Amino acid sequence: MNVFVLNCGSSSLKFQLVDTDLERAATGSDRVLARGLVDSIGGEGVFKLEADGRPPVTRTAEVLEHKIAVERVLDWLCDPAEGVLKDRDAVHAVGHRVVHGGERFQESVLVDEEVLRGIEACFDMAPLHNPPNVKGYRATREILGSRVPQVAVFDTSFHQTMSPAAYLYGLPYLLYERHGIRRYGFHGTSHRYVSRRLATLLGRPADGEGLRLVTCHLGNGCSVAAIRGGRSVDTSMGFTPLEGLVMGTRSGDLDPAILPHIMRKEELGPWELSALLNKHSGLVGLSGVSNDMRAVLAASAEGHARARLALEVFCYRLKKYIAAYAGVLGGIDGLAFAGGIGENASDVRARALDGLEALGLALDPAANAEARGREAEISAPGSRTRIFVVPTNEEILIARDTLHIVSGKRPS
User: Fold this and answer.
1) What pLDDT, on a 0 to 100 scale, did the predictor assign at position 311?
2) For this structure, is 155 an active site residue?
3) What pLDDT digit, counting tens, does each position of 149-174 carry?
4) With a cut of 50, which residues of the chain have pLDDT below it?
5) Residue 379: DSSP 8-state
6) Exposure pattern of 345-357 as b/e (b: 16+ CB <10 Å)?
7) DSSP letters for 126-195
8) Catalytic residue among 39, 155, 234, 333
């Protein structure tokens, strides 16, 4: 089955075309036929396209809306010279990343009008993400027609196994009842993929009773999850993706009393405050250099004081969450680092784990230094907790969920 996986942002479209079947999904031998990104939708779009076994290509074209982006991507996939498909009929299903499913969607689902209304009901909780996710669905539906089943895979669904003790805030309960104010968690697709791969590396079933895992998704957005027996029991992101770790441009945890204080002192309105917290904080706000960890690391190494401070704050917050989740789980059997920072920044991994040896987290410095962008064990011999770098692949998991649902089976 050829599954067209879409991740639509407000002005971007990320895609993969995955060839999979039930046997391949079970053995992890799914094949990515093509992948790419369309950026700057709404103007002069930039296409970065790569077919299996061929050099990547970059081109530009006017792309005023998501439907045009999907059209051009499908044209390229079916191009006799550059593509990998005979025609559009070779697209058998479409899987969509949807950021917010609220409490309603606890697993991936086949999209119909009722499901679509449920996704739209979450617009006010994910105003930057759910609307373009729906645009991607409507575009593919219009282009490919009703013959092609479409599946929604939610970032929030993996964390719906958290208990009320983990997801409720210390606010009046009626705010939860009236407005759904609670921790939802995000990056669930990544945490689910990484935790299952980590369980395999440990030689344990992912849903094995008592298996205690911590997964760290570290990119421009960052989150940590505590997972027991294949079920999320806690995660660092909350009602929105703003809570938790220090991130590229997001503040992470802070005292809520700071917010009205800043608004008064800086004469900010609510939208300006939101921009400050989501776009101008985190690494970029602390360092004054960049939201890109690579640039922060380079500047820190050159003696830039604020870049060094930003790095220290980032790693300190990460260490606190790892240690906290060791307490929540009563110990950790496996720890995994994923995402652009988690997979490539050995210094971040070393700083975050420094001093956690008493919790059974001992790093092998040589193995850690050599692990860059590839799967590798980085724990020291004899470490009570085995530590790995596990590159995430959310698109593969979306393709597998789509396959299982279209085949009439529950996602694994």
Assistant:
1) 98
2) yes
3) 999 999 999 999 999 999 999 999 99
4) none
5) B
6) bbebbebbbeebe
7) STTTHHHHHHHHHHHHHHH-TTS-EEEEETTGGGGG--HHHH--SS-HHHHHHH--S---S-HHHHHHHH
8) 155
